[in-house]
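Hi R.,

Here's the chain you asked about this morning:
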Amino acid sequence: MSSEPLIAREVRGSITILTMLYRPYNLIGTKLMDALLDELKVAEEAGARAIILRSGLRHFSAGADLEYFETRVGTPPADGDKDAKQANRANTYTIDFLQRLETLPIPIIASLHGVCLGGGLELALACDYIIAASSTKIGSVEVTLGLHPLMGAIQRQVQRIGVARAKEMSMLGRRYDAATLERWGLINLSVPDDKLESVTWTIAEEFAHGPTVAHAATKKLAYIAANEGVRAADEAMTDIQKPIWKSEDLKIGLKAFRKNGPGAARFEGR
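And here is the predicted structure, written out as tokens:
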């Protein structure tokens, strides 16, 4: 059995690069999700200010591990029985996993190449920024198995591109090119294949050099707005912004602005 890790970690200054190596296709299931959660914890505890999530294999991810839901095929379990409890645990785990990515106080940049399908797309949608090589094929293809996306793609597609496009993606199961999904607003940026690594790094540096405390508050406020609405975000805003007022980065930013104008601050991430 290969001793190759499921995820390779590289630290370059304040940026952590997580490279998925779960052969053959980075299939999404508890094994890879557990490894990713462990690596996110390490990155946070080490003080990372940006995280790049990418693949070291031919594809970013070809979808979900079939074993993750094959055990649920058949007659839906009755409330309270063993199978129902197992299904509920699986759903809870998935939700907790997505929430961990979406509320982690560090920007996560998903860098896509090859194919990014099914569960792989759902993983990317839980990140803060998605960049894709122009040749990447992206889609929610679960309908070809008689399913629909099981890990939150539908609702996150609705948030990003609206109901009509979300239903198109999940009900037709097509594979889209990166430029189309950038135009729709599902991903942030499509770049030539040979520029993916360099542009990903440039974007990660931009996040990492920013005011980390403010970025964490932005993620938290965006999460509340997307899931509970603008009113809830408004009501939470004062408490969420409290750490910003105490941060060294704010002091640095104000001092730099007074001295040299906007854009001159060198934030320290605290």
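One quick note: The first helix runs from residue 30 to 45.

Cheers,
M.
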